[in-house]
Amino acid sequence: MTTEQYDLARRGSRVSDLRASANDNPANTVLTALRDLNLRVAGSKLVDITDIETPFGDVEMTIRTSNRQQPQRQYKDSPLILRRRVTYHGQPKSTQLEINSKPLRSFLRKTLDGYPLLNLDSKVLVFPKPFEPLFYNASAIDDYIHMLTTNEQSPVETKSEVESTPIQPLNENGNVILPSPEPHRADQIELETDNAFQANMGHFLAFQSFMDININPTRSEYRSLVEDQRVANFEILWTLFEPGARVIEQNDYYIQAYLVDSSFLTEQNGIGIQVVDCVSWDYDGTYYGPKRKRFHIDSFPGTKRVSALPLYPIRFHNEIGHLSESQLLEALVSRGIKWRSLLKNAYRHYHSTAWIFRDPLEGKFTEKAIAPSYVSGPIILDYETHRQENPSQATALTFSNAAKGYGHALRYFYEGGFQYEDTTEGRNSQNSQNAEEEDLTSPAVVRGFALTEQAWGFFLVEHVQDWGHSFGNSDMLVLRRDVKSLILDMISSHNPKIDIDFMSGKGRGLIFLLQGPPGCGKTLTAEAMAALTGRPLYTLTGGFLGMDADKVNRELRLAFERAKAWNAIVLIDEADVYLASRDKLDLQRTLLVSVFLHRLEYFEGILFLTTNKAKVIDVAFESRITLMIPYPRLRSEQLSNVMRGLIISAAKNDPNLLVDRVVLENMDEYLRDDRASWINGRALKNLVKSAISLTSAQQEIETTDGKIYLGWNVFLMLIRQAEANRDQQKEIIRPLRRIRRTEEEQSGEWESTEPAKIHREHIPRQTLGEDEVDALDSATRKSREALSQAMNRDP
């Protein structure tokens, strides 16, 4: 239902009745119907007229409502005109108030200064129904007219203004009384001035009468429903959305604040729809600025609680939330400040729900679908690269009419020259005047790339965490000290701008090839170097890249461009298939290797490749590899240090984890035995992790103090299981549902008589204290340094 149809319905008239009573002359139908409407005319100075349109939209005739036809120009100079427009067949189309009165226009220019979408400099002020500017400023209008009638002061203009701009007397038709060429006597001048004042006062009284009839009933309904009961019906829904008002949209995940730009009523398929245009503050990768969003609220019967609407003023939030209005405003502003700090290629950590861009299903979508997903791991926040790769999801900034002076950008717009705020400029004192509005309406989500999921997405600002660089991985890295220092120095001093190749752009990358058996620390080396240098680690696998040459070429191009933008280290794990020698009989492999070689040639960043098949590497890679590092199998002393480092790290991260001393002693003995030949660095990590998990699961049932007592019996059971599966070469230890403690295991007895040096006595729950853990950590570091020095002396 449109506003015009609703207006007719409230007056007991229906459009169908108008059409039913039509005769050969449609104009007579309109005249008769309007005469029966009993439309009220507000005062003698307000002219209520109706324009009748032709089927082509032209005005065929203008009539005084409920009166006979008159020439259109008859009402041109009337002080106030209520103009209704209907179609040729009587269908209501629009209603507007036109103000020609000079004192009224002067008063409204001052009262409504800054109101959007309103031309206050026009010779005729036009207010379309439902007259929103007059509704929102009705109190100021009432106060001023009351002051005029009480103090009998000249409308709008002060005494000085009257002297400089004499009042033009008007006749009863609203026309200016031209002065007589003969000189006036003093009493005649005073009489004409009084007549002019009375005429101007009549304009204000007629305007007040119009307000009483057309605005004040809506104000009364607003106070009764919205203010007193906190509910609204669809007919007065527009009153909630004053331009510049702070409103919020709430869903299951976050609250987003906006400023109202404008609102209007429309319909679709006969259903009324309240449209609300809002603006928020956003960023497109280069500029900050306002972004528009349109909301549609379908009509509903009866009344609805304001806070149950999809969009509502922020002052109603405390009815459904735990935060008061002031607390919510403070939280949203704080979130906006954090959002602004995350926009410059930030390397962060995230643990929460995110909206990830998924590849479209084949033949179903042309654009990537966005699906909620739980993300846990490192993320890169980068608007510019996101915009380049996903133009359909890029932020589209726009100017707005929300409120004069809204933000830096909007202030430029209202002064006649809109421009965005460049991110290269900081906020100065002038820009900070509206910083609160910008922070309040900043997005609840930030755009970025999930390194684990290898996908772009939207991440909740409040769950983005600073990336605390952990150097624990580098401590557990078993690598000769001089080799580790060499890698670090090469990474730190790498400068891709240095170009010594004959062909510009080639050979600028720093490429390491790490070769050795599984579990010797190849992947850990790349992780440790990324942590030590504070760079993101962008990991690719053969499963992700695939075997299709076109896909590999495309994915490598994207990965290398992203790594350059993020200053990241790229790791291609298990790159055997891309490094293998080319075969004349295998065209696909030849094409794949050629694509890989080409991408390496023009890569400008830092790349780690890992392989355990060094003998099959194509000879062409030798000239493209900056440094090739062999990794021998870990010795028992090195594995002992890795094991202690893992246990110490777990104990420090979880204060409830208590480690039995016997675990360290027996593991040292076992690692020196030939039976431990199946253990490498990765298997040792899985062993420690599984032991802690199984112990925790068992003791959640049997203990109530929340402590986790990590004893030797759990390690013993897992080692037996691994040894039983050794013939099948399984490094992944099968989980056990429950730890079944036998007397033999409780006492620490070893079934086999070998190795003889295994400690047989099990001391239950004689755990390492905090000081002992620190001392053990220090001793382990010294042992690791001694091993490193010994490795340096090896030929």
From TrEMBL:
SUPFAM superfamilies: P-loop containing nucleoside triphosphate hydrolases. The keyword Phosphoprotein does not apply. One of its GO terms (molecular function) is ATP hydrolysis activity. Residues 508-635 form the AAA+ ATPase domain. The keyword Hydrolase applies. Residues 743-795 are annotated as: Disordered. InterPro entries: AAA+_ATPase (IPR003593), ATPase_AAA_core (IPR003959), DUF7025 (IPR054289), P-loop_NTPase (IPR027417). Keywords: Hydrolase. Residues 754-764 have a biased composition (Basic and acidic residues). This is P-loop containing nucleoside triphosphate hydrolase protein. It comes from Hyaloscypha variabilis (strain UAMH 11265 / GT02V1 / F).
